[in-house]
């Protein structure tokens, strides 16, 4: 293997490398391939020519060609690393893992065998560990993936992508975004400072600490967001300095936090600010589309779909947004085709699997819905939406035990979602486990005190349990809570009838008359009010008020 001095002394090698790297930098892959072939002919015993040829083919999209070239060069560490990357992109995961594990083992017994001055650069072990983590994550070997990402982050605290993956896998990194003891990361690291480099070293360290400090504040918010502590995430992100706060990335995280809190209007505003900074955004726009879907903003969703299609038709997020647009128009089959297209583009894009499940729920094909939610969960075991939706499917199928297990898995991931607790309470209410149901409704209320639905359901259950005065007290607070007024007054009438306070029951029904589009419903209820055992009101099917 050529040393750095040999590389510098051979003018032919130097000129070929310079010309090929220049071609690659300018995306002239055809020229790079031709030059690499000439280089190989001029220096047949060198490893660099075939490595550079493979790199050019890989950048041109010919990953299989690159792999065939690199299979004969695996004793050259940069070639082994590039081989692993190409195998990863080709889903040859076992081959990629073996190649990377060899590099990691070599690093343990002598970094010079892995890292050296090849083509004027070094092969960072942190990057090897990071790619190994990505491979293992895709193989669903989450324990090993966490170890690899953690090792990468410990070696390089500025490797944000490793930190991001750790957060997504719900692991607290053992490394931190702080100044740490200097460690060797590659062979040409030395422990002594070269003469005359003190000022340069100080500037570098100061710059690094500035980057790390920015990462600390952003990292706290990002970690909290992926632990479903959305309120904590928002608080942490507010601590970020103004320069870092006013960026598209930060506003996207703020929007996601509001989305998880079901604060869709606030989420939309944050996404709009993010797009004002970067109109070309692709990442997180699928969540933006879901926010617009929840708010039934068809015009805005259509505009977003059009923008995304113009930006990148081959992004899975684009097809998720388009699918949500058709879903909002109740064109479910077209929406399904769009979500399937997103999966065809990226089979590892778990959000599209969840959206497909929701579409099949909408057309009442519950087993197909369950199948898609399960696929989403298998790709991302921490997908709260997949677990929650699976629970709703099993609940609709009256498979209550299975539904409850799914809800518990969802709760284990996210204890801050009021809609989940409302569904859990509804399930317990069906099974007449009223005390447990009441506790769950109260939890939902506490998490979202401004949502009248949770208080109404609590009041209804209290009336069923005979806690009539407590139910009336809650209903009094809800009298002006649109659009629940009719149901509130009907339930009041029912409770007053149970308490044998007929004048109050009559007044409640007369108030309901002001809010209903069908006055005959109230008239019939008034007639029944005088009956000995007749129930004057409250809708028979409270499920129509269920959280979506």
From TrEMBL:
- Coiled-coil spans are 424-481
Gene Ontology cellular-component terms for this entry are: anaphase-promoting complex; cytoplasm
Q: Which keywords belong to this entry?
A: Coiled coil, TPR repeat
Please list the GO biological process terms of this entry.
Answer: anaphase-promoting complex-dependent catabolic process; cell division; metaphase/anaphase transition of mitotic cell cycle; protein ubiquitination
Q: Where is the composition biased (Acidic residues)?
A: 190-204
Give TM regions.
Answer: none
Annotated segments matching region Disordered:
178-207, 529-548
A Pfam family the protein falls into: TPR_8
Note whether Zinc occurs among the keywords.
Answer: no
| Alphabetical list of PROSITE patterns matching this protein | TPR
Q: Report each TPR repeat as a residue range.
A: 126-159, 248-281, 316-349, 350-383, 384-417, 418-451
User: SMART domains this protein is in?
Assistant: TPR
The record, for InterPro entries, names: TPR-like_helical_dom_sf, TPR_rpt
Keyword Transferase recorded: no
PANTHER family linked? CELL DIVISION CYCLE 16,23,27, CELL DIVISION CYCLE PROTEIN 27 HOMOLOG
Q: Hey, which family's this protein in?
A: Belongs to the APC3/CDC27 family.
Which protein are we looking at?
A: TPR-like protein
Source organism of this protein record? Rhizophlyctis rosea
């Amino acid at each position: 293997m050529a040393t750095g001095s040999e590389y510098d002394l051979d003018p032919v090698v130097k000129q070929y490398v310079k010309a090929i790297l220049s071609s690659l930098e300018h995306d002239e892959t055809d020229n790079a391939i031709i030059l690499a072939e000439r280089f190989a002919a001029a220096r047949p015993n060198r490893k660099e020519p075939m490595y550079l040829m493979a790199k050019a083919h890989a950048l041109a999209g010919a990953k299989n060609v690159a792999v065939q070239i690199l299979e004969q060069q695996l004793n050259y560490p940069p070639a082994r690393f590039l081989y692993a990357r190409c195998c990863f992109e080709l889903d040859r995961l076992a081959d990629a893992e073996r190649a990377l594990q060899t590099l990691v083992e070599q690093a343990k017994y002598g970094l010079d065998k892995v890292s050296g001055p090849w083509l004027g650069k070094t092969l960072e072990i942190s990057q090897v560990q990071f790619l190994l983590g990505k491979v293992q994550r895709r193989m669903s070997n989450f324990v090993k993936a966490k170890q690899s990402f953690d090792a990468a982050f410990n070696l390089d605290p500025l490797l944000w992508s490793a930190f991001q993956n750790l957060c997504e896998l719900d692991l607290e990194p053992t490394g931190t975004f702080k100044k740490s003891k200097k460690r060797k990361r590659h062979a040409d690291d030395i422990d002594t400072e070269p003469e005359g480099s003190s000022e340069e070293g100080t500037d570098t360290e100061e710059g690094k600490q500035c980057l790390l400090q920015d990462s600390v504040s952003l990292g706290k918010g990002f970690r909290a967001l992926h632990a479903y502590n959305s309120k904590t995430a928002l608080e942490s992100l507010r601590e970020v300095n103004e320069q870092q706060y006013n960026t598209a990335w930060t506003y996207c995280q703020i929007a996601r936090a509001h989305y998880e809190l079901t604060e869709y209007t606030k989420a939309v505003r944050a996404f709009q600010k993010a797009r004002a900074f970067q109109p070309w955004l692709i990442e997180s726009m699928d969540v933006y589309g879901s926010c617009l879907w929840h708010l039934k903003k068809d015009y805005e969703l259509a505009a977003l779909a059009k923008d995304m299609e113009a930006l990148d038709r081959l992004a899975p997020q684009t097809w998720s947004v388009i699918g949500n647009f058709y879903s909002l128009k109740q064109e479910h089959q077209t929406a399904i085709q769009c979500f399937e297209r997103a999966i065809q583009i990226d089979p590892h894009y778990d959000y599209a699997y969840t959206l497909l499940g929701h579409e099949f729920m909408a057309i009442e094909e519950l087993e197909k819905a369950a199948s898609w939610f399960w696929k989403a969960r298998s790709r991302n075991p921490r997908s709260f939406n997949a677990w929650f939706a699976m629970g709703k499917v099993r609940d609709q199928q009256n498979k209550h035990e299975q539904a409850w297990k799914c809800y518990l898995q969802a709760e284990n991931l996210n204890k801050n979602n009021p809609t989940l607790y409302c569904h859990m309470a509804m399930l317990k209410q069906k099974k007449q486990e009223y005390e447990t149901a009441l506790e769950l409704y109260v939890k939902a209320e506490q998490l979202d005190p401004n949502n009248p639905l949770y208080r109404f359901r609590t009041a209804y259950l209290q009336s069923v349990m005979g806690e009539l005065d407590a139910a009336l007290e809650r209903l009094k607070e809800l009298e002006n809570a649109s659009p629940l007024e009719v149901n509130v007054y009907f339930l009041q009438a029912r409770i007053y009838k149970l308490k044998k306070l007929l004048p109050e029951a009559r007044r409640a029904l007369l108030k309901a008359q002001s809010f209903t589009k069908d006055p005959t419903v109230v008239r019939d209820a008034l007639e029944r009010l005088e009956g000995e055992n007749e129930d004057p009101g409250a809708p028979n099917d409270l499920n129509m008020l269920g959280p979506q």
